[in-house]
Each structure stands twice: as C-alpha cells, then as structure tokens.
Write a structure and sequence with these properties.
8-stranded mixed sheet; 12 helices; two-stranded antiparallel ribbon; Aminopeptidase; alpha/beta; 368 residues; 10 strands; globular
Length: 368
C-alpha cells in the first residue's frame, strides 16, 4: 500500500472510531409488569379523547405572568381545584427572580434581563412510604399572543388525566405533579422547583411533558437538525426509513434516566406501536466530549430546551417527552397554536402511557 493510501485508510479508521465513540444508540426495551395490558384497559375506560379535548378547551389562554396575569391566575385555580378534587395534596410555591438573565417570549425570542419577576409553581403530591419521589411536570405559561394549545396545554391535559388515574394510588414512592411557571422566559419555575423538591425527597426521576399533542403522517413533515445523524445514527436512519413522518414522540433523557425512558417507550409500544417513540440520550454523559460537543456542535443544545434541563444540571435523572415542537409543529409559538390542530386520541394515549410509567416507577400497584 502506498503512503497516500495508508494515510487515507488511517483517516477513515479514525473517523469511524470517532463516529462510534459519539454515536448514542437506543437502549434495549424496558421490562414491563405482567399486568400491563390490564392497566391499559382500565385506564382506557377512564380517559377518552373527548375528556382530554375538554381539558384543553377549558384552559384560559394566553397564560403569562407578564402579558396575561388574570388568565394564568384563572388557569392556576382551575388546575389546583382539579388536583384537589381527585385526592392530591396541593400547594403553591412562590417564585421571585431579581436581576436574572432570561429570554423574550415574543419577537426575536432573544436574550434579555429581568429586574424583578414574581411567579408561582403549583405542586400536587401523593405521599409515599419512603423518601423517593417521581416527578411529572409541565409548564403552564405561553408565549405572548399564543393560545398555547400544544405549547403547553396538551401537556397540562395529560397532568389532569394522570391526576384522575392515580389519585387513589398508595405508592411506595411519592408522586409529584408540578405545574411550572415562566418556562418560556428562561425556565425560572423549574430552576426554583428542583431545589425545593430535593429538600423534601430523593428524586427518582423527573418526567417533563413539553409540546406533545401534534402528529403528522405526511412524508417529510419531520425536520431533523443538521448534525443529529452524527450523534444518533440509528434513530435518524429509522426516521429516514419512515420517510421523515412526524408520527412519533421523542424522549430525551440522561444516562441516569435510561430505565425510565425505556419503560415509557415499552409502555407506549403496548398502547400504540413499536415506532411510537424515538429515544435520544443526552450527550452529557459522554466522557470528555460533553463540554466540547455543547460548545462546538450547536445541535447538541437542542436537547437542553425545556424544564428537564434543571434536573440534568443538578445531576438528577430526568427525561423530556415531546413531539419535537418547532421541528414538526408549524404553529409553534404563534397565534395559530389552537386546539383544532391537536390529535386528542394521541394525547389520550400519552396520558395513559405516562400514568402507567409513573405508576411503575413509583412502585404503585394497580387497584391499591
């Protein structure tokens, strides 16, 4: 072999080694309880597409401490009453942030600084028998002028459904339903929530619901960020094999939450189909490469968009469940984000899947 050919072979080998080192494969399927089909049937008899639609339609909108304070207060009262009526202990966590950097929720959505912010997280709890807690959260606020049906009304409807389904549980670990505030302007609610929950519980997993209500079965309706194929070659190949249809949920998780992510995916496969999820582990757990990737590969920062990032930054297991938002949903952050755009049968499936996943992670038995 001539020197140029040898150098070329070495470079190809080096590129392949690098690709193998950074490639993030999907984990094996989660192992579900033997009675999971019974759980699905029980929950399907309680949650319907119509009940989910009614919950989304009841939410006042837009919801913002800055631009629509009366409507977000009315939404908070609606959610609080619904949680309490289904057996949850409900409390409000005040939030104050002074001189903090955030982002605009209109126009360019660029960086800004807030001199004096005041908001409220809503925390509903079913107390367990040990110190552990499974946290399910969704943000309440919307961007300026948007009804926020998908971002994030659909996720709030899932929280309400889970509250009904698990309101009589006697879990081994506590179950916390958290409605976070001011996510759209800098995730101030989740940044305040995490230390408060850590003070009370050992957090087993945080599950963040973010923009989950839109599916498209049209070819090429799903965008994939440039460079994603380097980190997620198998997952992107699977999307490619399905003609880039936006008909799945993405589950973004850190390594500590692998079990929770695999459990959610296996449960959704039982409720819907094998192709219903795409599992994407965050590159934060790649030794030495994490900082480099976040600093020099902008696409990596896509997986940090949302309230789950507060858990990751604290070194806690967490995942985000999303329909990929602006990578699929044409009405993202716009006045056209209205309930008629949503797939309520799909949201119902997400609610049932989420309830069973939380039930499994919390060690709660059906009919307990």
């Amino acid at each position: 072999m001539s020197p140029p050919l040898r150098i070329s072979a070495v470079l190809r080998h080096a590129r392949q080694r690098f690709a193998d080192a950074v490639a993030i494969r999907e984990p094996p399927p989660g192992v579900l309880p033997a009675d999971v089909d019974d759980r699905v049937r029980q929950f399907e008899a309680i949650v319907t597409a119509e009940s989910v639609r009614d919950d989304v339609m009841r939410l006042p909108s837009p919801r913002s401490r800055l631009h629509a304070p009366q409507r977000i207060a009315a939404s908070e009262e609606l959610l609080s009453s619904a949680f309490a009526s289904t057996g949850w202990s409900v409390e409000v966590q005040p939030i104050t942030a002074k001189g903090r950097g955030g982002r605009l929720d209109y126009g360019t959505f660029g960086p800004t600084r807030y001199s004096d912010l005041h908001g409220r997280n809503l925390i509903a709890t079913r107390t367990g028998n040990d110190s552990g807690a499974v946290v399910l959260l969704a943000h309440q606020d919307t961007v300026r002028g948007s009804p926020g049906a998908n971002d994030n009304g659909a996720a709030l409807a899932v929280l309400l459904a889970v509250a009904r389904l698990l309101g009589e549980e006697a879990p081994r670990r506590s179950i916390v339903l958290a409605v976070t505030d001011m996510e759209e302007i800098g995730m101030f609610g989740s940044r305040a929530l995490v230390p408060e929950l850590r003070r009370r519980f050992t957090i087993v997993t945080g599950l963040n619901l973010e923009t989950i209500g839109y599916l498209s079965h049209e070819p090429h309706s799903q965008l994939v960020p440039k460079g994603f194929g380097l980190l997620y070659p198998d997952q992107v190949a699977r999307v490619d094999s399905r003609d880039y249809r936006g008909d799945f949920l993405a589950v973004l998780y850190n390594q500590q939450a692998t079990h929770a992510a695999a459990t959610f995916a296996a449960t959704l496969a039982t409720v819907v189909s094998h192709n219903a999820t795409l599992l994407l582990r965050a590159p934060t757990n790649i030794p030495l490469l994490s900082g480099i990737l976040r600093g020099f590969v902008p696409v990596v920062n896509q997986v940090f968009r949302g309230d789950h990032a507060a858990f990751w930054d604290a070194g806690l297991p967490a995942l985000q469940i999303t329909d990929t938002a602006n990578l699929r949903y044409p009405h993202y952050h716009s006045p056209a984000d209205t309930p008629d755009k949503l797939d309520f049968g799909h949201i119902r499936n997400v609610a049932i899947t989420t309830a069973i996943t939380v039930q499994i992670l919390a060690g709660a038995d059906i009919n307990s």
